[in-house]
Structure prediction request, 467 residues.
Amino acid sequence: MKNFMDENFLLNNETSIRLYHEYAKDMPIIDYHCHLSPKEIYENKRFKNITDIWLSGDHYKWRLMRANGVEESFITGNASDYDKFLAWAETVPMTIGNPLYNWTHLELQRYFGIHELLNRENAPAIWEKVNALLASDGFGARDFIKKSNVQVVCTTDDPVDSLEYHQLLTEEADFDVKVLPSFRPDKGLEINRDGFLEWVTKLQEVSDRAIASYDDFLQSLESRVRFFHSVGGRVSDHAIDTMMYAEATKEEAARIFQQALAGKKVSDEDEKKYKSYTLTFLGKLYAELGWAMQFHINALRNNNTRMFRELGSDTGYDSINDDKVAKPLAQLLNALESEDALPKTIIYSLNPADNEVIAAMIGCFQGDGIPGKIQFGTAWWFNDHKSGMLDQMRSLANVGLFTRFIGMLTDSRSFLSYTRHEYFRRLFCSLIGEWVENGEVPNDIPFLGGIAQSVSYTNAKEYFQFE
Prediction:
């Protein structure tokens, strides 16, 4: 029997042990998609206690606490930070089988040197120890990034954001990690969503251009893409909860936009046309600039109306959607490919039933001499656990080039989430080790070690080419 989460955690044979410890473990991290605050990075935010860094905004933990019968006052309510931590500590032993059980203990081990199993009995002592460390030097936001060997952080940013903190960070001589913006124009695409007109007004202000027509709107969007590019942005991100595509002319999209500008809702079909034309416009621009475009597909959001009214979005009430993705995804990619304007693209689905669909789809649009130009994105959100990661990697390996995979990201708001890269790398090495042990691939450790380093780091470095 193996020891709990020892140095060979998740490594199931000698090959995987060598690949991880000799090749993958110490590779730098390129976190090409996360939700960290550039302001907190610039200010090197200090955390008042473990609840502040561990539980604030972490809807992964909140969901499990609710499932464990914890009252909302101890989750998002007005209970003290200490009592919220105790509520999480009482929940942790019940999370066995969930990745958060392992992630919780990885974070305690790697950042605070605590190897005890968190529970209600030892929670007071762990509270004191971690808080003492957080109050000492070397435990600010930047310090956690540096300790994790991160080279690049790509935050998630609205086109109307000023990017002031990204610009200020470029002037910090003592912090050599690149903190780059990612262009997330969802509010400009969701034409029927509340707040659309208010967002257009903000776009008008930051682009210094009156938006009275669809042409004005597209020109303003383009100006913001180019501004992001000037600040180092090389990635866009789109939450396409329901994958869609409908052929549309610019005139049709302009008519639909004018209807929305007048404060009217548009039909479902018109919404598809507007989104499709606008997405292809942006895709062409990304291709021109050499960006990578990301699609996050098949999330079903804000399912609990009562709690959405109380707490808002991103509070733990989203789930997996099961809309069809194959045909509309193919149509959208093909619309860009037909004009030789398909950018590098990364596709994620929250529904693991889409794994084979996406793994097969990306093979239809590779090319331009770019290794892995179209990527099947890493297991995302409800799938970033042991079986989800392995299933995604196996699907990619079965029908594509697993060796060109750009690997893991955090997709997190927490400065402690870089242990997810370790978790992923251990699983990746374990999978290759399994193939070696089964005689499916040769026992060529230097060759396989190079692949482990590529998927851990080098592929992403070459794919994004962050300057």
